[in-house]
Amino acid sequence: MGKHQKRIASPTFWPITRKTHTWVVGTNAGAHSKETGVPLLIVIRDMLKIANNAREAKRIINEGGILVDGVARKDYKYTTGLFDIISLPALNEHYRVLLDANNRFKLYKEGPDAVKLCRINNKTIIKKGTVQLNLHDGSNILASNDYKTFDTVILSLPDRKIIKHIPYKSGNLAMIVGGEHSGEVGKIKQIRKVRGSGTNTVVLSNEKEFETIEGYVFIIGESAPEIKVI
């Protein structure tokens, strides 16, 4: 995506109409990439519907009335994405960004004590052998080497301290964040490792049994989910 964004060519997971206007707001660099996030203006105008147009949404955002993961964001092009917590202090409302069954972003109500779930996408070793966890939202956090790729860490907000660790393993609960089963929650039955350059797959079950690729699996709990799910 370039500096300008046409509605018809915008990502399919943006919950906007495609043919009402030619252009839609683009994204600036942020915690999430352009391919996995949505501009804050769209969240305010099209998802929360607390603004009638872009001008009103920009004013609300510029006044610091919107918090993302506990931090006021005044850039209307700021990119927010999966599992972010959107807070409106003036209304005492809090929401978590998730995907619905149509693979579109949707906001789910949360309480004021909502925590942030982050998947570990990678680990790197920095100076003096310190382990750095590279999280799904583009942020990094220092930790021990006890954590593994695809594990989930629960962070307190806004200080982003690890308060719980949920391993990526059979028996734990996961939410699917892409593909045909987007938005579904199931228990992991088997993790199928593929040798070579093939993609690992995961078998899950809820009312039925299904299989998806490893990259779509996001651990959300052990015996019970750590977040509100529908």
TrEMBL record:
Limits of the RNA-binding S4 domain: 47-79
Classification via Gene3D superfamilies: 2.30.30.30, 2.40.50.740, RNA-binding S4 domain
Small ribosomal subunit protein eS4 N-terminal domain location: 3-35
Domain of life of the source: Archaea
InterPro entries in the cross-refs: Rib_uL2_dom2, Ribosomal_eS4, Ribosomal_eS4_central_region, Ribosomal_eS4_central_sf, Ribosomal_eS4_KOW, Ribosomal_eS4_N, Ribosomal_eS4_N_CS, S4_RNA-bd
GO cellular component terms, semicolon-separated: cytosolic small ribosomal subunit
SUPFAM superfamilies: Alpha-L RNA-binding motif
Pfam families: Ribosomal_S4e, RS4NT, S4
Residue span, Small ribosomal subunit protein eS4 central region domain: 92-162
Coiled coil: none
Entry GO MF terms: rRNA binding; structural constituent of ribosome
PANTHER family given in the database record: 30S/40S RIBOSOMAL PROTEIN S4, SMALL RIBOSOMAL SUBUNIT PROTEIN ES4
Protein name as it appears in the record: Small ribosomal subunit protein eS4
